[in-house]
Give the backbone structure.
Amino acid sequence: MQKEIYRLMLIHGFKPNHKLDQNFIIDKNSISKVIETIKPSKEETVLEIGPGLGFVTKELLKVFKKVIVIEKDPIMIEILKKEYPDKNLEIINFDFLEVDLSKLNFDKIVGFIPYSISLKIIDKIIATKPACLVVQKEFAEKLVAYEGFANYVSISVLLQSHSDIKIIRNIRKASFFPKPKVDSSIVSIIPKKNTKVDENFNQFIKNIFRYPNKDIVNSFKHSNSENKEIISLDKIKLIPEKIQTKKVKQISVKEFEKIYNLIKK
């Protein structure tokens, strides 16, 4: 696959763009594992985030009814159009973070996503569709972290509150070209049934985690004005005493959900 990258670089006259986190997968086994994890169907449409040179796209076209790809780089767009002139491929040249997903009809999500915006992408797709993503290994570990762990952060709570998430396996950095500085992980994200995004809950969690080492009561008192608009400080007394003394990073997902339901306006 690395030879194929060199071929495309020569034909289309480009170099991997570091600013766009362009590290192309060259390991067929990793691509196969992503395809297997997403459980493809010829009755479904899959959305691919950042297809790059189309190595994953090519395999998705074999197993899905339709593939929609969203790619920001116009050079990659031209390569995709020339290399994969498939009627079942819809190519969108846009920044994924600015796309209105509600206007697209798809069943599942796949992507070797840019490390630098992984958090924003995850935040955008929470509680939408089943997804299989490849992210930085350290970030994947945050997504599945439990209370008390050093890497337990706001996105840990937000994602686990809405989805079942699992690390499928790790990918060595040597499996990419150019080789990144870190290893990656394949993660499976399956939205829980009947779950909907409550933007107030999301903001509440993000604000609370600005003070992860304070107890829940003091974290309320130090939160910014956005937090005060979402919760009533006079309702702090409704929080069970055994939770009041816990540090934010020691509170479980279920406990956060309970707290929010008790004190929300």
In short: Residues 148 and 250 are 5 Å apart (CA to CA). The longest strand covers residues 163-171. The chain has two domains: 2-191, 199-263.
